[in-house]
From TrEMBL:
Peptidase S8/S53 domain: residues covered: 165-522
Family the UniProt entry places it in: Belongs to the peptidase S8 family.
Name recorded for this polypeptide: S8 family serine peptidase
Organism for this UniProt entry: Microbispora cellulosiformans
Keywords for this protein: Hydrolase, Protease, Serine protease
Length: 558
């Protein structure tokens, strides 16, 4: 997925210290800078490690690190970890003051990026004449079956609640194209940050993010070289401006909290830093359409893993748990995609895809329900499953009675339950032009080569939109509805408005449309997969508390 092109302006390198960045102990180390070779170090080689310590155990953990010959480069007392340069991580991890030790390296990827699917080709990909605005809708509203499904229409939620620019919505993803005509009016460039450093190659020399476009491999905060984050941001909050599409909450402020590299992988520490920063500046809702790797399932004590691997998984679980708690305690509602493996997260048996960085590190291992997918299975995070245009659960969407909290449109190209065909069954949202060009989706004149991309022009200026499907596309619908709730009931606070995440969650579920399991409950998809829905209509493994409903959220009383 690596795309490397120029574009946009970001925060200058001389920007002041950002809240949420840990304090240096021994030297002024920039904590979002990876150690050499992307910090993916083999046993016995020096690298940077995040050492998470028990409550009150910082001094003991520091002594353990120094006794093992390590150098403590920085610390973060809010999340309880040290950044240590060491070649003896296992020795440090064995100390009773240490919860877990994780390498500071890319350990995540987007949950729903770039799913490909067949569909009848529309030759030019241009907006159809009949799609021009009708009844106050945006030009491409006719293609947004997802917004109709949840009541985000001119006669639905838009007539009652559109959010507010005082509501800050954080997009933790691969970046946001802040210059896209259908993003720019709501893009908060001043607060947006990029917490990652791109890596041209992985530790084995294979291409990862590709050549760096900017000094230090640091993209500006309004650049998205993948397209995934821009699509997510558009679904949340594209404005009603007579261009393209409208998002669920078209009047909110969008804040780029970039935690993923161009190739779609995430570093653990930038993910932690992004959550801390969101909390410190008063962000109200954060969308997390990714999962943290290199372990699909993080097992605290799996006998099939080495001591170092177990320590790393414990560190991921504990570090993310602390970051989630910190963010929620500061008024941040956290929403995530549940995942695209089509499995029951409550009954995992095998994991053949971990560790998935660098490529070729995967192994077969047995797992059970003590192993967690992160952040989808963390307490305090709202996990979203995906449905297609007929309302059935999409076959790719993960599920589980303990894991699924709510459902939303995510697209399903195989869903034949409606008159929609091919790509029209997916989710349409904004796409960066430079990414589409790099992917070869546009011809020399800028016209789409197939029906996965739509070109829409207004007043001589054209913008691009792309069809995608995945739980990554479902989560931003819920994020947008959460933003509507904060806009209606939030009180003045840091960043503009603030609302207790527990109350936002309660209203999300109270306004959702209950949706029972299919009959029969054992469902065989056309792909041959068999999935079983368990639980009552009020809360089940496919749809959680039901289908998110923007129209009801726009009118509900407390």
């Amino acid at each position: 997925m690596s795309v490397a092109l120029l574009g946009g302006l970001g925060a200058p390198s001389s920007a002041p210290v950002i809240p949420g960045v840990p304090v240096a102990l021994t030297s002024p180390v920039a904590l979002d800078t990876p150690s050499p070779s992307g910090s993916a170090t083999a046993a016995g080689q020096a690298g940077d490690y995040l050492v998470f310590y028990v409550d009150g155990g910082r001094a003991a953990a520091q002594r353990a690190a120094e006794a093992a010959g390590g150098t403590v480069r920085a610390h973060d007392d809010r999340l309880g970890y040290l950044l240590v340069r060491t070649s003896a991580s296992e020795r440090i991890g064995a100390d009773p003051a240490v919860v877990g030790v994780a390498r500071d390296r890319p350990i995540g990827r987007t949950a729903g990026a770039g799913r490909t699917s067949p569909g009848a080709t529309r030759p030019d990909g241009a907006a159809r004449a009949g799609e021009r605005r009708a009844g106050g809708a945006e030009p491409l509203a006719g293609r947004q079956w997802d917004m109709k499904m949840i009541g985000a229409t001119p006669t639905g939620s838009y007539a009652k609640a559109r959010g507010s620019h005082k509501v800050l919505v954080g997009v933790m993803d691969t970046g946001v194209d802040g210059r896209h005509p259908d993003i720019a009016p709501n893009f908060n460039r001043a607060l947006s940050r990029n917490f990652v450093t791109d890596q041209p190659t992985d530790p084995n020399g294979r291409k990862l993010d590709g050549p760096c476009e900017y000094q230090g491999c640091k993209d500006p905060a309004d650049v998205d070289d993948d397209g995934h984050g821009t699509h997510v941001a558009s679904t949340i909050g594209s404005p009603i401006n007579g261009i393209g599409v409208a998002g669920v909450a078209p009047d909110v402020s969008l804040v780029n909290l970039r935690a993923g590299t161009d190739s779609g992988f995430f570093f653990l520490k930038p993910t932690l830093d992004a959550l801390e920063y969101a909390a410190d500046i008063g962000v109200d809702v954060v969308n997390m359409s990714f999962y943290v790797d290199p372990w699909t399932f993080n097992c605290p004590d799996n006998p099939g893993d080495t001591p170092a691997e177990r320590s790393e998984q414990r560190a991921i679980l504990e570090g993310m748990r602390r970051a989630v708690n910190y963010a929620r305690s500061h008024g941040v509602t956290l929403i995530t995609a549940i995942g695209n493996a089509g499995g029951d997260l409550g009954k995992p048996k095998t994991d053949t895809s971990s560790p998935d960085f660098p490529k070729g590190s995967e192994k077969n291992r047995s797992v059970d329900n003590s192993c967690r997918n992160v952040p989808a299975e963390l307490d305090g995070v709202i996990s979203v499953s995906a449905v297609g245009p007929s309302g059935r659960k999409a076959p790719y969407s993960d599920y589980g009675t303990e894991q699924t909290d709510i459902a939303a449109p995510g697209g399903d190209v195989f869903d034949g339950g409606t008159a929609l065909r091919g790509k029209d069954r997916e989710i349409l949202a904004a796409a960066p032009e430079h990414v589409l060009r790099a992917q070869g989706r546009l011809d020399a004149k800028g016209m789409p080569k197939d029906n996965s991309v739509i070109r829409e022009c207004h007043a001589g200026k054209c913008a691009y939109y792309q069809y995608m499907e995945g739980t990554s596309m479902a989560a931003p619908h819920v994020t947008g509805v959460a933003a509507l709730i904060v806009g209606r009931f939030g009180k003045p606070g840091p960043g503009g408005l603030q609302m207790d995440p527990a109350e936002v969650e309660r209203l999300l579920y109270a306004t959702a449309t209950p949706k029972g399991c299919p009959s029969p409950r054992t469902y065989r998809y056309g792909t041959g997969e068999t999935q079983v829905c368990e639980g009552p209509a009020s809360r089940n493994g496919f749809f959680g508390h039901g289908l998110v409903d923007a129209a009801r959220a726009a009118t509900v009383t407390r």
